[in-house]
């Protein structure tokens, strides 16, 4: 009887040990119940979103947080003269990675196409008659920061713009 107990106890302990090893060795798929939209991919249970999308499921357009009117101004070239004006950033409904910038350079005829590069930045370019401009912008909280180059005929200069969205004021 004693021998039977030892055999049963040994068998039970062996089975428990093998089960514990098997259970802990199984790799659980952290992405099993995670759904990532807009071609996002799951990594370690979290979505990695493509450029232009953000959020836990990649279902938020990054550009939407840029769509506002910004009150501010710019300084251009070596003059450090400050020109105050508003810029309007508008969504382009058919292009989730693009925005339209209106009233650029304090001119209602100047506009630029902005392309989202990350969750908080974009590049842009535009032209009006003999003026061309290219640059980049960054959104931090409700503040818009931009640096850009302007070429007008044979003159070129670099400008910096800072503005705050109307929702922040």
Based on the coordinates given, report the CATH architecture of the domain at 63-168.
Beta Barrel
CATH topology assignment of the domain at 63-168: Lipocalin
Name the poorly predicted regions: none
Distance between the termini: 86 Å
What's the mean pLDDT score?
A: 88
Task: Please estimate the helix content.
Answer: 10-25%
CATH class of the domain at 63-168, named: Mainly Beta
Shape: rod-shaped
Tell me the strand order in the biggest sheet.
5-6-7-8-9-10-11-12
Radius of gyration using CA atoms only: 28 Å
Q: Which class best fits the helix and strand makeup? A: mainly beta
The proportion of residues in beta strands is over 45%
Instruction: Count up the helices.
Output: 1
Helix and strand element order: HEEEEEEEEEEEE
Largest sheet: 8 strands, antiparallel, barrel
